[in-house]
């Protein structure tokens, strides 16, 4: 089974690239972030034609997450945490691959600038998320968390860490939240499979960042320890980032046996 995580930065603006990617990669499940559309305006029909169900938690112009799947997802929920600002940032559901696995698709707040309420909101959001993941683990030990975390876990995960150590993506306080999540019993699958490799999932639109490879790894797959033996491979597919009108993020591809 191939499960994809991709911040598409507007599903309607990127629909041509998304459909081309589906044709080439044939994923089973796609976890989308930053879809930037309300539920009623989501391009359901385009995905239905390709044989996918669509489960959407949208929001006008900003944020929004969705699960696109060839198999029916059970127990879809849009209320994993109580969001202070009522933003659409988490959608969850359940699949069965030998075990009942809970899919948690997230779009974590950016948090910049740090001297504003935006940063405080990110901290509160992460605290609530970690607390609720802990509760969820008491009911189901098999969790898959994926999405745009807006967190640079380690210095190797950005082209120039000095530029981001006081940023809401690389600040020590934020990286400790990521570590706190891992300590609940999760593995950062990309880093588990690639101990010392430097690859990125995001390149800004400005300053020729893509051309210079000035990127960062802020999109992640976290798997419960109980599921790590089922991982066949994980890959950052950079091809969609080089397309015309691309998202500033590129897909991460997880294959599970």
Describe this structure as you would to a colleague.
- The chain has one domain: Endonuclease/exonuclease/phosphatase (Deoxyribonuclease I, Chain A).
- The model has no long low-confidence stretch (mean pLDDT 97).
- The chain has a 6-stranded mixed β-sheet.
- The chain contains 6 helices and 14 strands.
- 42% of the residues are buried.
- It is α+β, with helices and mostly antiparallel strands and 257 residues long.
List keywords for this structure.
alpha+beta, Deoxyribonuclease I, Chain A, six-stranded mixed sheet, 14 strands, globular
Shape: globular
- Strand segment tally: 14
CATH homology superfamily name: Endonuclease/exonuclease/phosphatase
CATH C-level class is Alpha Beta
**Strand composition percent:** 25-35%
**Rg from Cα:** 17 Å
CATH T-level fold name: Deoxyribonuclease I, Chain A
Helix fraction, binned, reads 10-25%
Structural class: alpha+beta
Topology as a string of helices (H) and strands (E): EHEHEEEEEHEHEHEHEEEE
Number of domains: 1
State the distance separating the first and last CA atoms.
Answer: 6 Å
Largest sheet: 6 strands, mixed
Average pLDDT value?
97
Strand order of the largest sheet: 3-4-2-1-14-13
Number of helices, counting only DSSP H or I runs of 4 residues or more:
6
CATH architecture title: 4-Layer Sandwich
Low-confidence runs: none
